[in-house]
Amino acid sequence: MLLRNIPRAFSKKIVIVLVTLFMGVMFLELRALSRNQQASSPPALHLYENKDPVVSRNPNHDPDHCNNLPHIRHPRGIQILRDPKEKPIKIFHWEQTNWPGSIDWKKESLTLCPIPLDLQPFFDRYRISKIQNPTIKWETGYAPCFFWSYQDRVGTCNTKKYGNLDFVITFNYTEFNTADVVYMNNLFLLRHPEPPYYDVQLLPPRTSQQSWVSHFHSESVAYYPHVAIPGFIRQFDLTMGSPPQLMDDPHPPYRISDELVQELANVAPSYPLDKTPENYMGFLVSNCSPLNDRNKIMNELVDKIGAHSYGICYHNKDFPEGMDKNGPNWEEDKKKVLSKYPFSLAAENSNCLGYVTEKFYDVLAIGAIPVYMGASDVVDYVPEGSYIDSRDFKSTEALVEYIKKVDRSQFYKWKDIVKKDPSRFCKKCKESVSDYGCSILENVNFI
């Protein structure tokens, strides 16, 4: 009786509302049921075990993996299908900046240069993943000329197999498709936090007539573990650089020339050997996130021997007035500041085989005695008897006591030996070929 008094139009609205509410409740119930079913679903059945170590072990979490590297060699080298004298070998230098965040991309995007469309996916990926600014956009087929601001370089190398060979190294992306070799030395850019731990989309496209060459140097593989992953390395026809056990063409991380050997051998002790030092040690370290115990030993040397720290890490001493550790002459200023101490810390950022850098040689250059932390095979890269190895001491206290009592003259005996025979400076710190273009040409096979 009551419903009969309700206008027909209004009753239809009530029905629509009730149906809508009913459907909403049913939707929520079904979604909840689906979630419960998913939560209670049995785990997926793995028919076979994936034994790839990259799947089960994250190399970014294992700083010691750099001392257990695979021994990978490439028997194929660089194959070129033409006569060796037909034309110069064209090497395309695939290089991008390590610090894209420091570039004014709005300014650089005002000047664009053409690119092959084969490279469009790379530049799209670079813009999205490295520049990370949605307002930065480039027309299809163009990219900032910033990417190839270097001039082409030509040269000739006297190779063992073919005699004199000419080459041209180009940074011009329009020359990419006609290059014989793609040389990549900026492998840091590829690092990625998830498997396969390098960004595949930041590699160039692979063409059938081109060979790939990688050159990893100057940095520790502990920070860039993808460089040692077999699946990554096998993409290259030739690997150059360090660590030596990983490379087809091994080079030391820091190049030592014959001229530098003589220069270091003639540097006088930084502090008179017949005087007791007032301040034993100074150092300058500004990477405070090492992958070894460098922070610990720095802190304890500051505490137990009063070491002067001029860098960001454990800073307790400023540069003298008139010197700027961030200025254009900071390398020379650093040498002047540290040359008044008899000892200096030469500590790498990781303890990796073959990773002996300028940190050691910079201490020799000022005439001080290196207190070393780093590669266990450091003896192969430096003069015998020229340093104190921190691993030889059970504690920093024992190291400090040794520093205070040791006869410092013994750490300079190597100089007379090396002056007579420069080859005695080291076993593995030199390289016969200094130009990477010539290193590549030595590994070319014409078919």
Radius of gyration: 30 Å
Spatial ordering of strands, largest sheet: 5-6-2-7-8-9-10
Number of domains: 2
Distance between the termini: 101 Å
List low-confidence stretches: none
Portion in strands: 5-15%
What does the average pLDDT come to?
Answer: 89
Secondary-structure-derived class: alpha/beta
Helix share, percent: 25-40%
DSSP strand tally: 16
The arrangement of helices and strands along the chain is: HHEEHEHEEEEEHEEHEHEHEHEEHHHE
Individual helix count: 12
Described by strand count, sense and barrel closure, the largest sheet is:
7 strands, mixed
Assign an overall shape. globular
Structural summary, described in words:
With 447 residues, this protein is of the alpha/beta class. It folds into 2 domains: 186 residues, no CATH class; 168 residues, Glycosyl transferase family 10, C-terminal domain (Rossmann fold, 3-Layer(aba) Sandwich), CATH 3.40.50.11660. The strands form 5 sheets. Strands 5-6-2-7-8-9-10 form a 7-stranded mixed beta sheet. It has a 3-stranded parallel beta sheet with strand order 13-14-15, with helices on one face. The longest helix is centred in the N-terminal third of the chain and has 32 residues. The protein is globular. The relative contact order is 0.12. The mean pLDDT is 89.
